Amino acid sequence: MLTRIEIARHERGFLYEGVNYTRFLRPGVHWVWGLRVGVTKASTRAVEPIDLDDLDVYLRDPEVAADLVVADLSGDERAIVWIDGRVATVLGPGRHAFWSDIHEVKLEIHSTAALRLEHPQLDAILAVAGARAQLSELTVPAGSRGMLFVDQELADELAPGRYAYWTGAARITLRTVELREVEVDVAGQEILTADRVSLRINLAAGYRVVDARRSVEAAVNVTTALYRELQLALREAIGTRKLDELLAAKETVGQQIAATVAPRAKALGLELGPVGLKDVILPGEMKVLLNQVVEAEKRAQANLILRREETAATRSLLNTAKLIEASPTLLRLKELEAAERIAGQVDSVQVVGGGLDALVQQLLPGRGATRSEERRVGKECRSRW
Q1: Is residue 230 pLDDT above 50, yes or no?
Q2: Gap between the Cα atoms of 127 and 246, Å rounded
Q3: DSSP state letters, 277-292
Q4: Which pTM does this prediction carry?
Q5: Which of 107, 143, 193, 278 has the fewest Cβ atoms surrounding its Cβ within 10 A?
């Protein structure tokens, strides 16, 4: 029996007699003798790997192999497929074939022994289908350092950027270490002072990582480790001071804590920043007592200043009196000054004879006179004015 088989320009045919593959058919019209003749057609337009059940059988035919690009990958190999100059897919172990009739196909074979894929087109490779199955993407953000662990061992230190590692080659994990300054608050610490006063203390500190490798090797969590050191140093600094000493020099407490914790921070790969007390919270009864103490101290200071000023004023008056007693001219000047001040407070003064002396006598009556006489003369002056 003669059978006509037509293969289009973009097709290839695989001829069967019964269940056995016999030959490869290229584009054109083919006449085949036989009773149980069949054909399997495949389109060469496809950019995906050829998905045929008998691919291994076809690849034994040299004519078929001439139209294919084949990637036969071992367990430690991966392939990046470029079709027409663009990344198409990433292949894992196994045998893969692509038609090369219509499309230009190129293969990049990589060994997973290198673990990391370094490629100028890494972003494009990670964006294609199939890449996620063969590559693990790791990203280190800006201001950080990436600590790469391979099979639980620290293997590399990564700068900020995007990285890709072959899956299945090893167990890859990434731990990111922040290099910028981090703040640590040791809050709500109930501590007794040396004179048995209970205080609630809030401490603030800062640190930054200067040795990323040491920081991940020395502690599981450096922030927790540093917090513990600050807490212990704070309790020691407060417990050895009396309340008055603490309130008088809170800055020195921060300096003492920083000096105590700095060596331990260095061992953790850290550089300790500023350390200081944010809040010193007293019990309610203690606040009342301290307010009373402060009020009494301020009142005593005010009284002392008042007495000091009164003493100085009295001493000044005594010196003035001695000068006036020793100098009649100075006494006369003082009388004129007093008369001038009084005259500035009245509307008019009436003087009958006597000139300036009479005026002064009226304004300052009774030098050497008694108080009653002074009051009488004063009334007369006021009645005249």
Answers
A1: yes
A2: 61
A3: EEEEEPPHHHHHHHHH
A4: 0.66
A5: 143
